Amino acid sequence: MTRSRFATLADDAAMQLEVLLPPEWRGLVALSLGEAETGSIETLPAAARISVTVPSDRALLRGLTLPQGTDTRRAVALWLEDGSPWAQGSYLWDVVQKSGAEWQVAIFPEGPVRQAEERLERRGSTVGEIRLAAPDGTLFMLRPDQAGRGRLRRGLLAVVGLVTALGLGLALWQGQAALAARSVALKAQDAAEALHADGQYGTLTAAALALRTEKLRVPGLAAKLDFLARHLPTDTWLLHLALEGPRFAMSGRSTGPEAIIPSLSLAEGAVSTARVDFDGPMTRDLQNGLYSFAITGEFVGAGDAQ
After folding, report:
1. Which residue(s) pair with 31 in the sheet?
2. Which helix (H) or strand (E) holds 281?
3. CB atoms within 10 A of CB 137
4. Cα(43)–Cα(161) distance, rounded to whole angstroms?
5. What is the pTM of this model?
6. By the 8 A CB rule, do 23 and 29 touch?
């Protein structure tokens, strides 16, 4: 995956966290627009970053249908030039996808917000974000907390970096353990073959030998992870991976998920795959252009016939 694609995913995750986490958890003081407008100056928060919530009954909420693949924010900005009752540049707005091609736009006049900001500035406070909660619970970020979003993004990148480092360390350890176990198993197999050739163990040795040969055909964890790292397309981001015996299940996001199955199925070597297929329909996120997918299949070790 390219750095720009990775950065896009980090930005998307930060935006989702921004909506899920309450303002207090993000270092903001929650305040309603009414409190900021009418409360006495002495009672307003001092030297704080404020999350102002504006009332939905003073906002304009409109439904909008947009074709799939539309540049949403650009299309809404053009629509607002005629659809807003306030002059361009004198209102705040945000758009949220409700379902499929259905979107909801929230518009709020900027005048009352500016007056509230002036009162808060007299207390040394600044407005970090402005949000609106619709009657159905939909949350609109009329002015996002850019500084807070940047901190969330850096935190996510740090966590991903730590998890990646731990994963690489685990894969290396698993790889060394798998190689050692395979070496012991092969030596045991050679010894069993020699004993079987001498007729000392008869059919019991043959059965144990067949079982060991079958187990050696199931790739180890390190081999499976190495296979996926080498053969998954670079524009694919895994969000979930489950490994159970030879079977695997994965889900994530990609710019071209249709290329994943051929890339895995046609790979040749000590490890390959079989019966790789989508486990459900693909869906496209209109904001970042990525497709969500789920895929299942089986790993095949050297010597298996499919």
Report:
1. 52
2. none
3. 6
4. 43
5. 0.49
6. yes
Cα–Cα distance, 263 to 259 (Å, whole number): 6
CB 52 within 8 A of CB 59: no
Between the CA atoms of 76, 79, 83 and 84, what dihedral angle is there, to the nearest 10 degrees? Answer: 50
pLDDT band for position 158 (cuts 50, 70, 90)? low
Q: What is the pLDDT of residues 243-298, one digit of tens each?
A: 888 899 999 999 989 999 999 999 888 888 999 999 989 888 887 788 999 999 99
- Those residues whose C-beta lies under 8 Å from the C-beta of residue 75, and which sit 6 or more positions away, are 66
Structural domains of the chain, with CATH: 29-144 (no CATH), 218-306 (3.30.70)
For 137-201, give the DSSP string: S-EEEEE--HHHHHHHHHHHHHHHHHHHHHHHHHHHHHHHHHHHHHHHHHHHHHHHHHHHHTTSS
Q: How far is it, in rounded angstroms, from Cα 184 to Cα 240?
A: 33
Question: Which amino acid type is present at position 60?
Answer: L
